[in-house]
Amino acid sequence: MQQEDMKQWLEMAVSCAKEAGQLSLKRLKHPLDVTYKTSASDLVTAVDLEVERFVVERILNTYPNHGILGEEGTIDRSLKGVHTVWVIDPIDGTTNFVHQKQDYVVSIAVYHRGEGVVGVVYDPSRDELFHAVRGQGAYLNGKRLGLPEQMSMERALVCTSIFWNQEAVKTGLDRTIQEVARRCRGLRVFGCAALEMAYVAAGRLDAYISLSLNPWDFGAGRILIEEAGGKVTRLNGDPVSFDKKGSILASTPGIYEELLEFMNGRLNW
Ligand code: IPD
Ligand code: CA
Ligand code: CA
């Protein structure tokens, strides 16, 4: 992989995310066609599918041999032996898209031999573009992001996408999150993992905690946070494989160890 490849992948990811975001805004002017995936809390719209198809087609036109890992599965091809994979969430935060018509994003990441090299999160309603390139930093609308080394729990704004379900009770995450909320300045739940992780990279939030995220939810946000100087691991501190579903502990560096110790001391895996 050459620097020139990364530059071109970034250009492609940015142009796809921006165009896809504009398409989503256009579609919001008309009633949405909403269906349930697994339940009434798990929505998908015709726009999710249209946006994913649009992005996938553009990428494969230029890079026919690259792999695609997209939430809506509009292309079903094995990733075996494929070195460069585009990880796409066409609309992250579909429930927000349907209800609030904001606080949703387009998330696109490129992984090469398992390493995240390009991450792009585009928030169309605010026209905010977060991007990162491995070894070259993270940016918000072109302005370099950098997280401070120092932070304390009492000054931290922590975010979670906990579902108040049996899994949260079984693992003890429900009680643990309540304790985190008591120790920190405040707790937030935005319902859009990629946006929440981009906000950690930008220092608008100080940590993000999830029991279970899919690769397309964390793919780009993880690269943004790492390039801004933050940490992203599983909740038990294990490294994150780009293509595996699992928990996420994403944090500004100053409170990562404290949060990790706190999680490990309380959760039953
Ligand atoms: C969801 C959002 C949500 C997170 C869920 C994701 P979707 O993605 O990111 O914040 O808690 O785990 O599935 O379905 O809106 O793309
Ligand atoms: Ca998602
Ligand atoms: Ca989605």
Short note summarizing the structure:
The chain has about 270 residues and is an alpha+beta fold. It has helices spanning about 5-25, 45-60, 95-100, 165-170, 175-185, 195-200, 215-230, 255-265, and strands at about 35, 45, 65-70, 85-90, 105-110, 115-125, 130-135, 135-140, 145, 155-160, 185-190, 205-215, 230-235, 245-250. It has a seven-stranded mixed beta sheet, sandwiched between helices.
Account of the 3D structure:
The chain is an alpha+beta fold and 269 residues long. 38% of the residues lie in helices and 27% in strands. Strands 3-4-5-6-7-8-9 form a seven-stranded mixed sheet, with helices on both faces. Helix 1 (3-27) packs antiparallel against helix 2 (46-62) and helix 6 runs parallel beside helix 7. The longest helix is centred in the N-terminal third of the chain and has 25 residues, at 3-27. The chain is globular, with a radius of gyration of 18 Å. The structure holds D-MYO-inositol-1-phosphate (IPD) and calcium ion (CA) (2 copies).
In what range is the share of β-strand residues?
25-35%
**Amino- and carboxy-terminal Cα gap:** 38 Å
Give the helix/strand class.
Answer: alpha+beta
Uncertain runs: none
Key traits:
single chain; 269 residues; alpha+beta; 7-stranded mixed β-sheet; 5-stranded mixed β-sheet; 14 strands; globular; binds D-MYO-inositol-1-phosphate; binds calcium ion
